[in-house]
Amino acid sequence: MRVLALDYGSARCGAAVSDPTGTLATPLEPVLRPGTRKGFARVVALAGELEAERVLIGLPLSLSGADSAQTAETRAFAARLAGRLTVPVELHDERFTTLLASRDPGDPVASEDSRAAAHLLEGWLATRSTREAG
Questions:
Q1: Helices assigned H by DSSP within 37-110
Q2: Residue 46: is its pLDDT beyond 70?
């Protein structure tokens, strides 16, 4: 299953995609200003271009697991996107993905936002494979 992961932010939306086997996560170019008409259209188009079968959006919770200031905006973006796509849109805890991305010596070309999206996707894929194995 090909999954598109998004690390939503009002200025930039990091993006990453899984390979068709759901094993690898590859960072993509971030989408600028995803809340604007043009930025939102680019996110929708990206899901179609990649033939994503699911869109995963990082949910920015506080360290305690409570909603943060960014959580409501992210939930609204996810709901708006779910209304435009025919594939499932799912929120997933993104705590520590930005920290991991900042420490990641990985692809120097990929933005930190997109590396965070890749970490989000890797965590989700690992959780999914553990559930399916059990």
A1: 37-49, 69-84, 97-103
A2: yes
